[in-house]
Amino acid sequence: xxxxxxxxxxxxxxxxxxxxxxxxxxALKAAGVQLPSxxxxxxxxxxxxPLALIDLGRCNVATARALTAALRxxxxxxxxxx
Length: 82
Description:
Helix content: 55-70%
Structural class: mainly alpha
Largest sheet: 2 strands, antiparallel
Number of helices: 2
Shape: elongated
Distance between the termini: 49 Å
Low-confidence stretches: none
Mean pLDDT: 86
Strand content: under 5%
Number of strands: 2
Order of helices and strands: HEEH
């Protein structure tokens, strides 16, 4: 019985990571950024106690600059809210 409970927890972790990945992909898309390799790190999702890490992957220089610009434009909004 304990194994089934642990397996459900592992499955939940992976599903939660999938949702987080999808939310990040949507937020980046709204900011005009697409990380082509965004996904789950398969090795971290394996085993009875997965970490379920999100792999941001690799991107080209233009994408890195677009991501930097999106993050910097958000800095001003956060500073104004403080």
